[in-house]
Please model this.
Amino acid sequence: MHRDFGDYVLDIVQNAVEAGARNIGLRIAESDGRVEVLVEDDGCGMDRDELSRALDPFHTDGTKHAKRKVGLGLPFMVQAVEAAGGTWSVESEKGKGTRVRFAFHLGHPDAPPVGDLPGLVLSLMAFEGGYELEVARTRETPGKSRLAWSARRSELAEAAGGLRDAESLALAKAFLESQEAD
Amino acid sequence: MAKMTLEQLRKLREEKKRDIERRETEGKEIRIIVGMGTCGIAAGARVAFDAILAAVERHGIGASVVLAQTGCMGLCHVEPTVEVLVPGMPDTIYGKVDAATATKIVDRHVVARALVNEHIYDRPAADIIRN
Model:
C-alpha cells in the first residue's frame, strides 16, 4: 500500500511520464487542513473505455505485463481519497492528455500523512526522459503567513547541473527544502 | 531558513564543484536506477531512493553517479528494485531494497566493487523485456 500523500502523487506523475507527456503540471494547494491536487499532462490520454478500465484495479493495458491482471495506480488513489471522505476526478482525452484531481481533509483519521514534500518533488523530477514539469505549491494556515513557491524542472536542471547525477539531485533537494521551510 | 533563489543554487553548485574532486570512472558513468512504478512506490522505493542519494553523497562521489527513476521493472514480487550499472561489473538488479540495503549497495557494490549477493534478482522478468 502507498504510505503518504506523496506516493499517490508520484504514482500519477509516473503514469504521465510513461504516457509520453512532454509537459506535466502539478498543483498542490493546502488550505485550512484541506489539500487539493491537480496533475495535468499532455501524454497519450485515454478514451472513455480505457479510462474506465484504468480505474479498475483488476485491469492493466497489457503492454508492460502481458500476463498480469492488476493495474493499481489510479485505484489506490481512489481508494485512499474515498476512505478519507475526499473527492476525485479523472478526465482524459485520447491523444490530448489527462487531468487528475483529488482533494481531502488532512485531519481525517483515514487521510494519508503529507510526508516529505520536497523529497516528493525531487522524485517527480528524477524520472528518465526530457519532460517538463511545473510544480505550484501553496499552503494557507490561519494565523501564519502564506507559503507559495513554484519549481520548473528545466530551470532547476539548469541551475543545479542537470538533475542526472546525485550531486545535482542533492543540490536540487536543498533548494526544494528551502522553498517548503517556514 | 530563507528560500533559496535559483541564482543562489547556481552559486552553491559552483562552490561544490570546486570542493569535489571529480572521480573518473574509466570515462564511463555509474548508473543507479530505482523502479518507481506503483509496485515500487507501495513497497517503499522512495525510501530506497533517499537512502541511495544520502549514501552516494556521504562517499563524496555524487558527481560521478547518475541516479534515476523508471517505472516497473517487472519484478513486482521483490520491490523495491534497484538496477546498478557499474563499468567493469555485471549489470545487476537488486530486489527487496530497504534503506539499509540501499546503503549497503552503495557501500559495497558502487564503492568497494563487490556484489550484494543476497539481494540479487538478476534481469527483469521475461514478460517485460523489450526485444
